[in-house]
Specification:
Elements lengths: L2 E9 L3 H10 L4 E6 L18 E9 L4 H16 L5 H6 L5 E7 L4 H7 L4 E4 L2 E5 L10 E5 L11 H11 L7 E5 L5 H8 L4 E5 L3 H13 L9 E2 L9 E7 L2 H6 L1 H5 L2 E13 L3 H8 L3 E9 L2 E8 L2
Parallel strand pairs: 6-7, 8-9, 8-11, 9-10, 11-12
Antiparallel strand pairs: 1-3, 1-4, 2-3, 5-6, 12-14, 13-14
Length: about 300
């Protein structure tokens, strides 16, 4: 069955009112997105940031009367926006919403996504392969991945840069910490490249589940890659620490992350925009020596080693 999609171009101030008006009149789901190429990369905790120009998109059942529904959305929006008692003044101040109706074809959206996720080559002998596709090079190291709801597929520049660096390291018998493990892609990659053991740390329960599933999918015992919330993590120090999160948390957590490093061990940081390089270098220079900064499409990966 097809669906009807209503898009309304709104402002930051009115987006919540548009959303509520849609929900009042039968919207099954609501999506808010940037309507002016104004990304918000690191919102403050506890906030719901919106863009100055926000597109609000609602999905409705196909058998609704689109004209009547839009009229009701328009009415509810204006009633929520103006609270004056003078109806004539209110009528003069009515705002006409910029709206567009679209027919959305019914699809198996999970299958649609799966069809467009292909194997990724990170190095000559290292591939990231969706679990439902055959490995392009069976003789290479092939990491089988089903990310689920957790971040980390290898398609984003931050993860790819970490994987590329990982592929060039000597990891035989090393102990790895994947801080902010997401899908577990970095810790699993390290184990497949020869590391002895790894642990995954994340604040998101979905990430811990995804990591555990992907560990099993790659034929690795869970004893070699257990996962923890930060308050339950072991206190042992690692030979290599990955932290692919965001620049803000990386700066805040710099002392804590560096405490996980054994002497002369390696640190790989990513999730960082090129414009944020200075703040990362400043935060970590007191604890480590910076070795290299690699860049891809405006994102960077900072690597270094601990002293001692």
């Amino acid at each position: 069955m097809p669906w009807l999609q209503l898009r309304i171009d709104s402002s930051k101030q009115d987006a919540d009112k548009v959303e509520q008006a849609m929900l009042n009149n039968g919207a099954l789901s609501i999506t808010l997105e940037d309507n002016a190429n104004q990304p918000i990369l690191e919102p403050k905790l506890g906030t719901t940031p919106l863009w100055q120009q926000t597109r609000v998109t609602a999905l409705f059942e196909a058998d609704i009367d689109s004209e009547t529904t839009l009229a009701k959305v328009q009415r509810d929006f204006n009633e929520s926006r103006y609270t004056k008692t003078d109806t004539e003044t209110n009528a003069a101040e009515q705002t006409q919403l910029a709206s567009y109706w679209h027919i959305v074809e019914d699809k198996d959206w999970e299958r649609e996504w799966m069809d467009h996720y292909h194997p990724i080559q990170c190095a000559d002998n290292f591939w990231i392969c969706p679990s439902w596709k055959d490995a392009p090079d069976p003789k290479a190291v092939n990491l089988k991945l089903d990310p689920g709801l957790a971040f980390g597929t290898g398609t984003h520049e931050t993860t790819f840069l970490c994987l590329q660096w990982l592929a060039g390291q000597q990891l035989q018998d090393k102990y790895i910490i994947d801080y902010g493990c997401g899908s577990g892609i970095l810790g699993i990659g390290a184990l497949l490249m020869g590391a002895a053991t790894a642990i995954g740390i994340d604040i998101d329960p979905q990430a811990l589940l995804a990591t555990a599933d992907n560990v099993e999918r790659n034929g690795i015992s869970r004893e070699r890659f257990p996962v923890y919330f930060p308050d339950k993590q072991p206190k042992s120090k690692a030979d290599v620490v990955f932290a692919n999160i965001l620049a803000g948390p990386l700066v805040t957590l710099a002392p804590k992350i560096c405490e996980l490093l054994a002497p002369k061990s390696l640190l790989c940081l990513s999730g960082i925009l090129a414009s944020q390089q200075e703040s990362i270098v400043e935060a970590y220079t007191p604890f480590i020596n910076i070795d290299q900064i690699n860049t891809k499409n405006g994102w960077i990966c900072v690597t270094g080693h601990s002293r001692g």
